Amino acid sequence: MRQRLTIILTFVVIIGLLVLLNMLTYVKDEPPRDTEISANRSTYHSGPTGTRAFHDLLGESGYKVIRWRQTPEKLAGDLGSLISTFVVVGQLQVSFTEDEAKSLHKWIASGGRLVLIDRDVDSYLLPK
């Protein structure tokens, strides 16, 4: 009986030491830092490459600012008459298709303003 108790206690001590060693050597991975190469230009992101400060500044300056979550084709409808300026900052998560770019150009031709802020603007978004 005494021999079994010694073996069980030895296993408990070894497992305890392994858990303690694991806790002492654990290194938490840091999230990747924002860089200009892989910038996150979201208006929800307040980091160095985010545009949340720009969004908040416009809102606090008295401008009515919204985050457009619909396709650019919706600008041609009734909602488009309420929007005066459409701002695109950086590379998009989902790029505009040709049809969306054409509807955006129609909206611009009817009096809308498009502001593109990027180092490398897609040529099909630029009005001719």
Structure description:
With 128 residues, this protein is mostly helical. Helices cover 39% and strands 8% of the residues. The protein has helices at 2-25, 52-60, 78-82, 98-109; strands spanning 85-89, 113-117. It has a two-stranded parallel sheet with strand order 1-2. The longest helix has 24 residues, at 2-25. The radius of gyration is 27 Å and the shape is rod-shaped.
Structural class: mainly alpha
Largest sheet: 2 strands, parallel
- Which parts are unreliable, with pLDDT below 50 for 5 consecutive residues or more? none
Q: Order of strands across the biggest sheet?
A: 1-2
In whole angstroms, the N-to-C terminal distance is 91 Å
- Approximately how much helix is present in the residues? 25-40%
Number of helices: 4
Order of SSEs:
HHHEHE
Strand percentage lies at 5-15%
* Rounded radius of gyration (Å): 27 Å
Give the overall average pLDDT. Answer: 87
The total strand number stands at: 2
Overall spatial form? rod-shaped
Question: TL;DR of this structure?
Answer:
With 128 residues, this protein is mainly alpha-helical.
Features of this protein?
two-stranded parallel sheet; mainly alpha; 4 helices; 8% strand; 128 residues; 39% helix
Task: Give the helix/strand layout.
Layout lengths: L1 H24 L26 H9 L17 H5 L2 E5 L8 H12 L3 E5 L11
Parallel strand pairs: 1-2
